[in-house]
């Protein structure tokens, strides 16, 4: 939880419960002593602010939705075109996933992803909060490709 602690200059510092008993610098240059946790819990806590508004759709989710709608439109217009579209979705998902890995990991470790078979899977489980979108995009690509293969076989 977040709490506010007042400096001698009048500024309010936002501190966490994990900061209890420590000293935090103020913008005026003074160091403010954060009270112990028992004292902090008696003061009113401050709600954490979110970085993005709740009604705002994230950019990757928007791209994912547009690609999915586009896949269904192309599928209804010409079912045999689904197979190459599925391959394209799989490839785009892998590139997106690889770019996330390169952005999140240090360069020598990120290059291991291209040589060690299970490294992307390990990254998926460790950073599922960001890796689920490209992974799911690739899974939808497999489904679209299989539907296209079934439509081409008939």
Automatic annotation (TrEMBL):
Keyword Transmembrane carried by entry: yes
Residues that span the membrane, as ranges: 61-78, 109-128, 135-153
UniProtKB keywords: Membrane, Transmembrane, Transmembrane helix
Protein name: Uncharacterized protein
